[in-house]
Design goal:
Elements (H helix, E strand, L loop, with lengths): L11 E4 L2 E4 L10
Antiparallel strand pairs: 1-2
């Protein structure tokens, strides 16, 4: 299972048999 801290630009993950690569990531801090 992926945690929020695992999402970084360039990370490649496999979800439901499909390979995905994170091209961009934006963190928004509430408040």
């Amino acid at each position: 299972m992926l945690m929020a801290g695992d999402f970084r630009k360039g990370v490649t993950v496999e979800i439901d048999g499909q390979v995905w690569s994170i091209a961009d990531f934006q963190h928004v801090k509430p408040g």
